Amino acid sequence: MSSHRGVKRDHFVSCRQICKEFTDLLTQDRTPLGNTRPSPILDPGIQGCLTHFSLITHGFGSAAICAAMTSVQNYLNEALKIADKTYMNAGDQSPAETNKTIDKMDKHRK
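Below the sequence we write its predicted structure tokens.
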């Protein structure tokens, strides 16, 4: 049972890390907007794709995705806090109570 708990927590941590890396990539976007011409810092192939994305979204694409990813990261941080509290207190509960708590978390996540 405890290995199942660790796997779920590991999934949250991995997902949070992927979201962070993606957000970090988007914040390095140096697409020219308006009169600005920032110096590119990313590989030209990656920057070209980000510039194309920015152009087809009228400059709002990267900013909108970053805002959404920040929300996802906040959700994952809160989910990890709840999971840690639930699993730390699980030793104080009977296995049936622990399963009910985990089932509630799973339903809430869906």
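Residues 2-109 form one domain.
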